[in-house]
Every structure is written in C-alpha cells, then in structure tokens.
Fold this sequence. Notes:
Layout: E1 6-8, E2 11-12, H1 45-59, E3 62-64, H2 83-105, H3 109-113, E4 117-120, E5 125-127, E6 132-134, E7 136-139, E8 143-146, H4 157-179, H5 185-188, H6 204-209, H7 221-234, H8 237-247, E9 250-253, E10 263-265, E11 271-273, E12 275-279, H9 287-306, H10 310-321, H11 324-337
Amino acid sequence: MEKIYKIILFVFLAVFSSACVQFDDSFTETVFEDDPALDPTSETYTFDRYLQENYLKTYNLDFLYKMQDVGSDIDYNLIPTNLEKSKQLAILAKYLWFDAYKEVAGPEFLKEYGPRIIHLIGSGAYNPNLGTVILGSAEGGIKVTLYECNRIDPTQVDVLNEYYFKTMHHEFAHILHQQKTYPKEFETYSAGHYDPGYWQERDNVVAASLGFASPYGSSQPREDFVEIIANYIVKSDAWWKDWLDKASKEWRIKLNANGDPVTAPDEYGNAQYVYEVTTTESDGIAGKAVIETKIEICRKWLKESWNIDLDKMRANVQERQLHIPEALEKGFAEIDSYKQN
C-alpha cells in the first residue's frame, strides 16, 4: 500500500517525571508588558487590541499569530497564518476553550493553570519519513502551538474539532496531568497494545476495538489519557455512538477478488484499508467496555484532582458548538469596535 500521511494531532515535547511540575509564573507575576505599545495606524491594530484585552490582560497569555522564527521548529518547512484565519482562531479559541473553562471551572482556573503562549502556524509540520503531520504541541505546560491554521473553516464543525479544538483540550489535559498525575490504573486496561513506533498504521476500527479513542491514543499511555478527555469533550453523541460501535466489533481487512487489500478515502481524503466485521461484542470483544472504563477514570480524576465536572464541560462545549456563527459575528464586531478607541 502506498505511503499515506497520518495525522499526529499532538506532540508533547516536555520531559515528564513522576513529580508534579510547579509553575514559577503566576497570574500576577508576568514576563509580558501590561500594556504593550500598539500602533493605531497599523493594519493589525484592532486585532492586536482584541488580543490584548481578551488574552494578555485577562489570562496573562501572549497570543502569537505572527509566526515566530525563533519559536518554530526549524526541522520543518512552515508558513505563517493569514490574518483572517488568525482572527477566526482567536475568537473561537476564546469561545470554545477559555470561556467554557471559565463557566465550568471558574474564572480563575485558566488564569492559574492555562498556557502562557499560544502560537499559530499556517501549515502542518510534515514528516515524510514517518508519513505523519503534526497539528499541535505543548511545551513545558507554558506554550501551545497550533499548526494547519490556514485550513480553518468555521462551517465544518467536525473538522474544527479534529484539527483545532480537540488539540486545545488535549494539550491542556497534558498541562493538568503534569501537575497532578493520572491514576496508574488507567494504563493497565490497554497494557500490551501501546505502540509508539507504528500507531500511525492503525485504522480507526483497529484503534477503537483495542480500547482507544483514536489511533494516536494508542501510541503511549499519556496520549491515550488526554485523547479520551479531548474526544469526550468535543465529539458529538453521533460520533461517540459510531466509535463505540466500532469498538464492539472484531474486524479483518477486506480483500478484493485478487486477494489484495481494499482501500477507500477517509473523511480527510487519506487512503484507509476497508474493514469488515466478523464478530460482535457478544463474542467477547472488550474495546467498548475498555473505553467506557477509561472515561470513568478520567471523569473521577478531573473531579477529585481539579473539581471539574467532565460531563458539564462536555455539555457546555457541545452547546457552544451550535452557536459558532454568532460567536464569530460577536468577535469580529468587538475587533472592529477598537477602530473608534
């Protein structure tokens, strides 16, 4: 089968240890200027004011939409995000991520535990040797980088979730478990199935049947943990019903008359093997039960460690997804309002 690109939705670059990570920078001790000088004659002035008011002043967070060469991975050929896409992402990140946590976890939560930098990259970070493309990364609990930002299409909610907002919730879950580690019991349910070297070869059907929420989740336990949380929050009831149905089945690769594997494009245009069901969960397939058990572990950990109700967070985000057009209209109106100030 020809080499195809698989999506690495997230890459966690920090070094982990069993000890909790302590942040040196608090909300009141910032390395950023409180009121950095902005040029009112600049083409980007109104957007810069929006970011200053909604991110820098509110969350002590520097939202970098002008690609930083020094802060980018020089191993990849990368391009900046265009201004219109940057505005869309800034508005929606606030609406679907920061405002959701503000409502569910309280107004101070992300001020204390959120990242200090969000960096937008217009393209993905392609690795032709592995056949993968990185769509997001988190570094030391301080910086979150989002790739492929020029592809954002606010009318495609499923793609928004897969490429951006699952990334955000995934990376933030990494930040949280750096400080308060997740239960080691979690790793026992898929022991023997993690594969950091060849997870990208796993189809969705395979990953689900093994008890994972995505192929990338099968790469290693910490990615499994945050993929469960992120997918549970952003994916719809219909998506979860379909995924758990996949997890309940045993499969085999479908072959054509010549005995060769049958392939078909997935929802993102990548070639995938076609699978056919051979048995159902009544024959002892446990993928569905494993996923549901993992969700319950995540639910308990978030409540006991952070006083966050996972189901309330999911309900909040799911409701917000229904109002993306209104959020964008309101956000752009706020950006335009700074012309008068």
